[in-house]
Amino acid sequence: MAQLDTRQKLAILADAAKYDASCASSGSTRRDSRGGKGVGSTEGMGICHAYAPDGRCISLLKILLTNSCIFDCHYCINRKSSNVRRARFTVEEVVHLTLSFYKRNYIEGLFLSSGIIRSSNYTMEQLVEVARQLRDVHDFRGYIHLKTIPDADPELVHQAGLYADRVSINVELPTEAGLSRLAPEKDGRRIEGAMRDMKGAIDDGRDARRKYRSAPKFAPGGQSTQMIVGADEASDGDIVVRASQLYDRFSLRRVYYSAFSPIPDASAVLPLKRPPLLREHRLYQSDWLIRFYGFKPKEVVAATEDGMLPLDIDPKLAWALKFREQFPVDINRAGREQLLRIPGLGTKAVGRILTSRRWRKITLDDVARLTVSIARVRPFIVTADWRPTLLTDRADLRTLVAPREQQLNLFAA
């Protein structure tokens, strides 16, 4: 392999990392370097080219240690049999890049993953050493997310949690059959075992912090995982159920979804076309319904059509249209759980309704101020001055409330 300079390595390994979606800093411990001590700071918002609620774009250095790998997973562009150009950073190069980029105000942290070289333990040792040098040698206080390596020694994975804000291991595919067919060298039970061990270590770390203030913090941002969507035959219903199981069993902070993207020299067992990106978006919406809106996985699955979420409307609206007997909901009388099921009302809008109605009756105009489209909400609610009568039962209701397709103007002001 020809010798590459750092800039060339960065171009290769940053591009190779783009397929990993599971990077965010929510839930991390807040740290800063005020007072002249340490380097960097960390925020509690999203990171990795995400947008915070106030509109700020927050980014981090997202790279692989190497794109060489001893595994031959069919869906991975960095698989052993792929003919992509290979590169590898040294530990010192990653540390230098992270500090240099941070001091130039390019990034707010580091997301580091890797292909597997030599062995799982050797690769995990290299990742941990990067984090150790940043924390112990350079007193770096920014955000660090480490992707743990399958089958690595539990002690090495534990060390990762001592230095990183968040750790993660990808389950890769939603079904065991899909994983066996497309990644035969990976074992779903071992992956879940590693996630179970990490959950136990995080729980132990929190217990220790409650008892002893001097106890070290352990992965304060928790753990996350990622599933590839569209590479196998798993339906949206399968994915929703699997994600819910992972949340329940391992107390995950997030399950990320990554739409399968065809890669150069792809294996013959892979689909020829990528799934629509809107499918990935609908899965994130269904994830939100379960985590923040009180929906059960079986309720989200019930809103699917032959196991697939509709692409033209969001899952919440799909559920409401399918179970119209639950509507209309009286805005002035219903409890929080019922209000959260109304299409077009988010958690903040419901909170404001509950607060406001303690002092006066809520009208249709009041609801209109809390939602983007009152026309979408109107068939499903009763207010002090509005009742939908037969509107909720109309056969063409889906057409009336579905968002209109609109061609965006590239040069609009």
From TrEMBL:
<dbReference type="GO" id="GO:0003824">
    <property type="term" value="F:catalytic activity"/>
</dbReference>
<dbReference type="GO" id="GO:0046872">
    <property type="term" value="F:metal ion binding"/>
</dbReference>
<dbReference type="InterPro" id="IPR006638">
    <property type="entry name" value="Elp3/MiaA/NifB-like_rSAM"/>
</dbReference>
<keyword id="KW-0479">Metal-binding</keyword>
<dbReference type="InterPro" id="IPR007197">
    <property type="entry name" value="rSAM"/>
</dbReference>
<protein>
    <submittedName>
        <fullName>Putative DNA modification/repair radical SAM protein</fullName>
    </submittedName>
</protein>
<keyword id="KW-0949">S-adenosyl-L-methionine</keyword>
<feature type="domain" description="Elp3/MiaA/NifB-like radical SAM core">
    <location>
        <begin position="59"/>
        <end position="286"/>
    </location>
</feature>
<dbReference type="Pfam" id="PF04055">
    <property type="entry name" value="Radical_SAM"/>
</dbReference>
<keyword id="KW-0408">Iron</keyword>
<dbReference type="InterPro" id="IPR023874">
    <property type="entry name" value="DNA_rSAM_put"/>
</dbReference>
<dbReference type="InterPro" id="IPR013785">
    <property type="entry name" value="Aldolase_TIM"/>
</dbReference>
<keyword id="KW-0411">Iron-sulfur</keyword>
<dbReference type="GO" id="GO:0051536">
    <property type="term" value="F:iron-sulfur cluster binding"/>
</dbReference>
<dbReference type="InterPro" id="IPR051675">
    <property type="entry name" value="Endo/Exo/Phosphatase_dom_1"/>
</dbReference>
<dbReference type="InterPro" id="IPR058240">
    <property type="entry name" value="rSAM_sf"/>
</dbReference>
<dbReference type="InterPro" id="IPR010994">
    <property type="entry name" value="RuvA_2-like"/>
</dbReference>
